Amino acid sequence: MCIARPILRNVTPMAVLLIVVLGGCAAPSSITMTKEAQQAMTPDQALERLREGNDRFAKGASTHRDYPAQVRATANGQYPYAVVLSCIDSRCPPEILFDEGLGDIFVPRVAGNYAPVDLVGSMEFATRLAGAKLVVVLGHTECGAIKGACDGAEMGNLTTVIAALQPAVSEVQGVEGPRTSSNPEFVQAVTERNVRRTVETIRTDSPILREMEQSGQLEIVGAIYDVRTGRVQFLN
Predict the structure, then answer these.
(1) In terms of domains, do 52 and 9 share one?
(2) b/e map 72-91, b = 16+ CB within 10 Å
(3) Which end of the chain has less neighbouring CB within 10 Å, N or C?
(4) Distance between start and end Cα atoms, the chain
(5) Number of folded domains in the chain?
């Protein structure tokens, strides 16, 4: 994080700016994941790295990165350590909220963060072939796709997405109040159920990922990002 130094008297605004930029900031990081670092990392270490990155993000202490240098460093290969399946919502880009740079994580995205077969196949590539050690299904609060599923919305091809989320709506029971998007408690319960259901779907639909997890090569977890706090809560 950049920290401005005390301002001296009779110093021009431009001079103050130069003091802050040149003297008060750490050099931008050009570090990216290497093959050696990826191979040495365990699934638990991968999960902890995501936790630490989100903590920095939520505190406003994200890493200052030299993206042109990272472009050059990753031009001949990539070694991401995790896959984060997330919603397309513009408020929750995984690379930013986990404080990661180029080449650090794979990020498949689809409205409602569910797992159609093509995305599951992409996860198989990311883990078995490309070496990632962790799969995270990342839902988020105030999800428009989840709210649409709660209300039974229909619109063009979006109807297919809503249909994929409907089982989570049906499986949520015991929440007081209307079973619509007007009920925040119901929406949150469906959001969590959808994440857990997607984790289950990935294990069921992919023998490759299931076997990798059972052998300790991989971990598959769910999480929910809070758009109001910037914090990610990992689900047990």
Answers:
(1) no
(2) ebbeeebbbbbbbbbbebee
(3) C
(4) 32
(5) 2
Please tell me the distance from the alpha carbon of residue 70 to that of residue 56, in angstroms, as a whole number.
Answer: 20
Residue 16: other Cβ atoms inside 10 A: 14
Tens digits of pLDDT across the chain (236 residues) = 443 333 334 555 554 344 344 444 567 888 899 999 999 999 999 999 999 999 999 999 999 999 999 999 999 999 999 999 999 999 999 999 999 999 999 999 999 999 999 999 999 999 999 999 999 999 999 999 999 999 999 999 999 999 999 999 999 999 999 999 999 999 999 999 999 999 999 999 999 999 999 999 999 999 999 999 999 999 98
Grouping H, G, I as helix, E, B as strand and the rest as coil, residue 137 is strand
Non-local CB neighbours of 181 within 8 Å, separated by 6+ positions: 147, 148, 150, 151, 187
Q: Are 193 and 200 in contact (CB under 8 A)?
A: no
Q: How many helices (H) and strands (E) does the chain have?
A: 10, 5
**C-beta of residue 103 within 8 angstroms of C-beta of residue 79:** yes
Amino acid at 214: Q
pTM of the model: 0.88
- The domain of 14 spans 1-28
Q: Which residues of 137-162 are buried (b: 16+ CB within 10 A; e: fewer)?
A: bbbbbbbebbbbbbeeeeeeeeeebb
